[in-house]
Amino acid sequence: xxxxxxxxxxxxxxxxxSLYLGLPPDGIDAAFPSEDACEARLYxxxxxxxxxxxxxxxxxxxxxxxxxxxxxxxxxxxxxxxxGTDLHGIHRGLRSYFGLAEEIIQDRQRxxxxxxxxxxxxxxxxxxxxxRLRKKLTEDLAKFHGGLLGRCICVDxxxxxxxxxxxxxxxxxxxxxxxxxxxxxxxxxx
Length: 190
Hints:
By secondary structure, the chain is mostly helical. It is built from eight helices and three strands.
């Protein structure tokens, strides 16, 4: 499967390496050990100032704990944490999607794509589901800063010096150097 989501190879490499470097150092399982932790992270990223009604854009909402639904006090519409996002209507838990996104980012930064068989085996899903999710999540992660899911799982995006031009070969070299430095750190060389 080849998706042409970027204007050139340099920008594509920069994007996927930036997301990879932004992943939690100990992995998604350590950073988000439960479904509640994943929901809290999504809430924090989506609504940093509190929930906003997608219908009338008011912040005056009431949370129904039992159903995990927000109710707007003005227009009375109900909405969930994932309403209006690419994660709306998901049948698996958020933790599963966080793990899938991490796997896609790790493979894409190497210029590969997780195979459908790997997704089936690693995540216990049907072949048709693997096809749909791989395409959907790859397209979402290809958005600016990894889309909503990428912003949720990437906790520390790498910085770049003010004189560096975004998307340049120097930017790519800087990111590749940072990846090498982290590999050395893990091995205890640096």
